Backbone:
């Protein structure tokens, strides 16, 4: 779900796009698209095209704020809509088991496979197809995969068997993941500074989480009033179809190298002269890029301690959103006898928490920018670990504390609002943590060209855990004990019967362990970055990079 920045080879500095949010080219680097004024390339017969000037109106950084916000609003709308398809089917678990004769046993919930395949599809599609999206461009790529996504709603609604539903959901989830990552690139494409990007980035992550959480409560009414799970997808088909013209007219191309490439292609056609952009000249062939896209995130994930721990922290938090689609039903149906569709409305508590969490991320961004005044590593630049100050507290209080509240108020003698408050606390913590990890990893790798791969690793981890973690929910909430029988007000405190309270408690302890990772980074983050061969520190070569270069020289 996290944002993606173009992923270039660090050994080829010339491949950086002029529209990179981390790079501002000096005035002398701009040349008019007239071949006589274009920059000379190593080959005398080829000219390299860049922007006309620092104020080139086609450069997305130079758009008016109104135009930037219109495009950003269109992008954020897509961010909210896509994930609704992911979890909305959760409220139809019983209907699926009845129609397709599948069984939800005490230890495994087979009805969750349509959601699991949706998330796993997202992990794989990002790795395989994202490099293609960089070539196609934001607008064309989004519209193509959005149209494919709409088409895949049809076989979900008409699925003749359970296998067909799972397979089509796999493709649908892959499309949504690509759309989300494409949309994420719009923000750094049009907003040049950290301060300008803070609000759009926070909104992007909040809306993606809200969309993932809002599916069950939004479509609970379908099961309540219509009772046919297929109508969930019929209604989605109408909604997504109506928004296609909205994206067609409002979503513009924001990727700078794509805009320049189209200029160069037009000039080559008009003049017959070899005019190219840096990206065209330096970009490796598609197959090597695909191999790099698949291998580099995995390599970074398992060799970079900061990235591995951050991914585990964020992935568990994000996966909890999907786990709640299973655990909330167990708790509220078991304790209060609620119908399946009524349980779907409880997810609204998580949404409320996520909205509160977004407001907290704004304060976190303020602390981050304020840290620049005390940065001795890169004077005037914010400290990357400042991203973690508020999120660490949110992890301990929101996720861990909320899980404990959710666990130990899950008794029939407590009103339903008590565990719902715990859910809201967890939702708040999830929003702050996922936002902080995305920002921190981007900042930590920003000075090198590995930020895209690092964020890709986080995104793949989040989608994988979101798909697999809830599969263990049935076993956890059964094997750790059954829910307690109804007790009288005088003796319920004296009798503790193991139940799904212990499953939620186990999740709280896992979150507690993971919450210590950012504490370590806050105190030792600079040391980790100095020793990493994939991060830059203070604009200087790090010890890890020096060692890597010495090894390369010896070879």
Residues:
């Amino acid at each position: 779900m996290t944002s993606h920045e173009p992923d270039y080879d660090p050994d080829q500095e010339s491949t950086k796009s002029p529209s990179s949010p981390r790079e501002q080219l000096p005035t002398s680097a701009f040349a008019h698209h007239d071949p006589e004024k274009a920059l000379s390339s190593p080959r005398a017969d080829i000219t390299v095209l860049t922007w006309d000037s620092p104020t080139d109106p086609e450069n997305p950084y130079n758009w008016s704020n109104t135009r930037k916000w219109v495009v950003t609003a269109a992008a954020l709308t897509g961010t909210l809509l896509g994930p609704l398809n992911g979890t909305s089917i959760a409220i139809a678990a019983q209907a699926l088991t009845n129609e397709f004769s599948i069984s939800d046993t005490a230890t495994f919930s087979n009805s969750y496979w349509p959601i699991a395949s949706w998330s796993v599809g997202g992990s794989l599609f990002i790795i395989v197809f994202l490099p293609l999206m960089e070539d196609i461009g934001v607008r064309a790529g989004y519209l193509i995969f959005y149209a494919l996504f709409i088409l895949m709603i049809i076989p979900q609604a008409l699925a003749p068997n359970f296998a067909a539903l799972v397979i089509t959901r796999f493709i649908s989830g892959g499309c949504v993941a690509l759309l989300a990552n494409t949309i994420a690139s719009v923000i750094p494409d049009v907003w040049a500074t950290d301060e300008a990007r803070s609000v759009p980035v926070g909104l992007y992550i909040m809306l993606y989480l809200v969309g993932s959480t809002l599916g069950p409560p939004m479509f609970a009414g379908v099961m309540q009033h219509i009772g046919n799970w297929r109508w969930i997808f019929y209604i989605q088909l109408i909604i997504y179809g109506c928004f296609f013209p909205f994206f067609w007219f409002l979503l513009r191309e924001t990727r700078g190298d794509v805009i320049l490439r189209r200029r160069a292609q037009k000039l080559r056609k008009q003049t017959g002269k070899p005019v190219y952009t840096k990206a065209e000249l330096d970009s490796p062939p598609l197959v090597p890029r695909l191999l790099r896209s698949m291998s580099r995130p995995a390599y970074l994930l398992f060799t970079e301690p900061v990235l591995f721990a951050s991914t585990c922290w964020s992935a568990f938090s994000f996966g909890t959103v999907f786990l709640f689609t299973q655990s909330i039903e167990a708790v509220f149906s078991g304790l209060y006898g609620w119908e399946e569709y009524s349980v779907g409305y409880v997810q609204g508590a998580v949404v409320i928490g996520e909205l509160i969490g977004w407001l907290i991320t704004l304060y976190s961004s303020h602390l981050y920018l304020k840290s620049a005044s005390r940065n001795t590593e890169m004077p005037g630049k914010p400290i990357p670990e400042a991203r973690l100050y508020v999120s660490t507290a949110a992890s301990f209080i929101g996720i861990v504390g909320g899980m404990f509240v959710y666990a130990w108020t899950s008794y029939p003698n407590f009103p339903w609002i008590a565990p719902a408050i715990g859910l809201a606390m967890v939702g708040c913590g999830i929003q702050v943590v996922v936002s902080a990890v995305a920002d921190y990893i981007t900042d930590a790798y920003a000075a090198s060209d590995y930020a895209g791969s690092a964020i890709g690793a986080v995104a793949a981890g989040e989608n994988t855990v979101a798909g697999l973690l809830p599969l263990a929910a049935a076993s956890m909430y059964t094997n750790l004990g059954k829910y307690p029988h109804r007790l009288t007000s005088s003796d319920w405190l004296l009798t503790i019967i193991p139940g799904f309270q212990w499953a939620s408690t186990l999740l709280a302890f896992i979150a507690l362990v993971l919450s210590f990772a950012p504490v370590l980074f806050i105190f030792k983050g600079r040391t980790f970055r100095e020793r990493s061969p994939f991060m830059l520190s203070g604009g200087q070569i790090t010890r890890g990079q020096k060692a890597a270069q010495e090894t390369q020289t010896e070879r």
